[in-house]
Amino acid sequence: MRLLLIGAPGAGKGTQAVRIAEHFGLTHLSSGDLLRSHMRAETDIGRSVKSYIETGDLVPDAIVMDMLRKPVVQASAEGGYILDGFPRTVDQAHAAYLVARELQVQVQIAVHLKVSQDELIRRLTARGRGAEDTPEIVKHRLEVYASKTVPLLGYYLERERLVSIDGAQSADKVGDDLIAALTEARDRLHLDAANA
Ligand code: AP5
Ligand code: MG
Predict the structure, then answer these.
(1) Which mutation among 58, 166, 173 tests ligand 1's pocket best, with the greatest number of atoms within 8 A of CB?
(2) How many whole angstroms separate alpha carbon 96 and alpha carbon 72?
């Protein structure tokens, strides 16, 4: 299975990706976690992305694509992945599609975790992950999500690959809903492939 998890900052992508990865035997790949570990290790990538992360802007597509290519190919060979926080723009989605086609692994399900703005702000300011979670930067991250990432939902909806889940429920209930919806979508897509 190759899953993409889309949701606003604080929607619960990381929380849910861990559970989905465990349930379906997938590798969890979080673009944000990978970028932050580059920053901690002070790699070239880490140094070049620091200012974007701290201001809440998106890191340039090329850096993210280069960083993810190897782990995605490896996870794909090892039973699949759940990508948390990637793609984040229509351009990234298109690039990911081209890589998947190259690898002959078309089946992808995009999951949208839906949470209201008030709840997102409440969760992020309560968590406080450094400069990223200060009120001003949270506000900016939510604006970036609305302008750059929300159009992705239309991209996947058009391709009949979008599963939407109410992410405002308890984390356990969101996880149960996700597993049920993904099991259903996986079976449906396998059936489609068999009929093609
Ligand atoms: P990234 O790390 O992806 O951050 P984000 O999208 O802002 O989201 P978060 O990780 O903050 O939230 P989450 O949805 O994972 O929620 P979580 O489970 O932690 O990206 C960071 C930065 O990296 C970006 O700003 C950008 O600069 C860069 N970047 C990353 N990917 C990129 C890409 N593809 N292209 C370009 N740039 C990129 O939960 C949040 C909190 O809520 C936690 O405290 C949690 O315990 C709590 N919580 C979770 N679920 C629930 C629930 N159901 N009920 C109550 N509380 C809950
Ligand atoms: Mg996260």
Answers:
(1) 58
(2) 10
**Substitution candidate for ligand 1 out of 4, 5, 13 with most atoms within 8 A of CB:** 13
Q: Does ligand 1 have an atom closer than 6 angstroms to the CB of 170? A: yes
pLDDT at 104 over 60: yes
How far, in Å, CA of 137 to CA of 50, rounded?
14
Q: 27-30 and 162-166: which strand pairing?
A: unpaired
Q: What is the pTM of this model?
A: 0.95
pLDDT at 194 (0 to 100): 55
Q: State whether the beta carbon of 14 lies less than 6 angstroms from ligand 1.
A: yes
What secondary structure letter does DSSP report for 6? E
Q: Both ends of the chain: CA-CA distance in Å?
A: 18
**pLDDT reported for residue 196:** 47
7 pairs with which residues across the strands? Answer: 113
Q: SS3 of 85, please?
A: coil
Structure confidence by residue, pLDDT tens digits, 50-67? 999 999 999 999 999 999
Contacts of 175 (CB under 8 A, 6+ apart): 16, 19, 20
- The mean per-residue pLDDT over the stretch 89-96 comes to 92
